[in-house]
Amino acid sequence: MNVNAYLRPDGRIGVRNHVVVLPAVLCANEIARRMADAVDGAVALAHAGGCTCGEDVARTERVMAGLGSHPNVAGALVLGLGCENCDSEKVTRQIAEQCPWKPLERLVIQEVGVSRAIREGTAILEKMVGKASGQKRTEVGLDGLTLALECGGSDATSGLAANPALGVAVDRLIAEGGSAMFSETTEAIGTAHLLARRAANAQVAERIVETIDRAEARMVPLLAPGEHFLTSGNVAGGLTTLEEKSLGCICKTGSVPIAEVVEYGVPPRARGLVLVDGTGFDVPSMTGMVAAGAQVVAFTTGKGSPVGYPIAPVVKITGNPGTYERLAEIIDVNAATITRGEKDVREVGEEIFHEVIAVCAGKPTRSEAFGFHDFSIATLAGAYAGV
Amino acid sequence: MTKRLAIQIDRGDNVVTLVDEARAGDRVGFVTAEGRQELAALDDVPFGHKVAVRAIAAGEPVVKYDEPIGRASRAIRAGEHVHVHNVDSAVQGGAK
Q1: Residue B34: closest CA among chain A residues belongs to which residue?
Q2: What does the alpha-carbon distance between residue B86 and residue A207 come to, in Å, rounded to a whole number?
Q3: Domain count, chain A
Q4: Tens digit of pLDDT for each residue in B63-86?
Q5: Residue A242 to residue B93, Cβ atoms within 8 A
Q6: What is the pLDDT of residue B95?
Q7: Which of chain B's residues have a Cβ under 8 Å away from the Cβ of A164?
């Protein structure tokens, strides 16, 4: 099977052709937005990091480099303030090394002034968008495609309908040579033994257990006294054991082996299904997977989450009939047909797979039609504040 | 006699999950790859809760998502409500 996408000179596959401004610190966000708002086709990846400490600065730099060099990005402007901890020069150099073909510029506000930065930045973005609009899609195989898996606003129907159907789509994509990523480490607590059984080899199994244990060790001190991974609400809602709860979350990964475990925003070497050590929070979780190379996101939601993502299309799936009735405008695939007994999980899994391929070929998602650009980078300081 | 809907996630599962509320005696229908099936609920079962599709012996795994989600703590009959009163978790931190 093929998909109509952008084949980049480095051999990677893009499914969108965005031009981005990458502010190196939150103090540059407003100026980044002014530039991007002035240019149709440009988007600012504004975030709250850049002057945090230690591992969080390294994460911010890694994520910025990953997004700037992403195959869905046709041009990138790195915007430094000048005094931040995040090294915008290093980020720019990393993008250039990874993608020598890509239009890339760097501006530092404290070196050129605010008005001039906005003026020059806007001109740079206009030029990049002009160049991007001349690029054409071509037929490529699915072997360069990676689907990020996310669930948010979950309810009883997530584990019943939308997630199992997505698991079927993942098995199909990987059988066709594609790859997938999942990242909600805090929502895999209690399933390490099950996930480890699916590891491609003993080292991967060990990494899965270590990664989930580390999340649990960071998480436990944040639980209130008496609070538990399985809450009284879970039990009242029909969840009998922790295994069942976590299986509902991880069943969106299908039944394929887990090929590798990587840190947040780090591109894997292996193809197939990969665990990215991320967070249960949806928006920064998507960043961890997109910065690691995923070009498209499949997002299951029970209650109805509207979020989109600035550089990757988000295919939204619900298994809740009421949510589909009220919020059809943000839903791309209706898995409530399973909940209503009209279709089985396999049929809807095929529908999800075909919708993902259509979206990769350029079909706009519902959140793209709204222009939703939710973005944030997980920090260790905030990643474990809740699940 | 009222008919209620349930979902069997994987064909190997020995439980189905209700997407309706059932009263004891209601028929519970579910879709499988082989077509529609039906069984009688033996208990009142709330939305999102599970019903056994066949008899599960004490100590036998309770299977959902084609994976064991725990073990039957006593014998469970087909149509019986399956929950914390008759299932034990194998993992520290389960409900029991």
Answers
A1: A344
A2: 34
A3: 2
A4: 999 889 999 999 999 999 999 999
A5: yes
A6: 45
A7: 9-10, 65
